[in-house]
Amino acid sequence: MTEPMLTLIFLLFLATGSLAQTANDVSWAKRVDTGSQVITTMQFYFHDTLSGSNPSAIKVAQPQSSANSLGGFGNLMMVDDPLTEGPDKNSKLIGHARGMYGSAAQNELGLIMVLNYGFSDGMYKDSSFSLLSLNPAMQAVREMTIVGGTGLFRLARGYALAQTYWIDPSTGDAIVGYNVTIATYI
């Protein structure tokens, strides 16, 4: 009698584990429930286009003179940048980064990032996280702070590692890879 009961418990355990795995319905993000919190890791690409007839980032403010600073100190950009699964601009659209970034350093390229990363794919549809951090854009890998979120990312805290995948120095257009780790309470 105990052997069939143990078999049943084992099968339920396996079914529960496979059910948790099916919750990861997208290839660009994974969730792990630790019992007290959920850790989500994501990898996606941010497409910042300043050029052309339909830019995703536009300058909304600039100081009277920023010619003496390396990164255009005081310039402010408003953005609605697509987020994609892969680096190709035609890869699957998974959301948008909306908000602003501005040049916040006088002697280097340091951008203050105030962005909401909203998702439109899979179980993350209608969830977002907020990033508020300095982006030292000339560093190969930049670590930035995640300060909150909505939906599956309510009460989020974490970090984003950004690495430039491609940049056109003549226009400023760029594709940036993001690796994000977010912790939320259950």
- Give the neighbour order of strands across the main sheet: 2-4-5-6-7-8-9-10
The share of residues in helices is 10-25%
Q: Tell me the radius of gyration.
A: 20 Å
User: Between the first and last Cα atoms, what is the distance in angstroms?
Assistant: 37 Å
Shape: globular
The amount of beta strand, in percent, is: over 45%
Q: Give the structural class.
A: mainly beta
Low-confidence stretches: 6-22
Order of helices and strands: HEEEEEEEEEE
- Strand element count: 10
Counting H and I runs of at least 4 residues, what is the number of helices?
A: 1
Largest sheet, in brief, is: 8 strands, antiparallel, barrel
Mean pLDDT: 89
Written description of the protein model:
The protein has one helix spanning 2-22; strands at residues 29-33, 37-48, 57-61, 76-84, 93-103, 110-119, 128-136, 142-150, 157-167, 174-185. It is mainly beta and 186 residues long. An 8-stranded antiparallel β-barrel has the order 2-4-5-6-7-8-9-10. Strand 9 and strand 10 form a beta hairpin. It starts with a helix and ends with a strand.
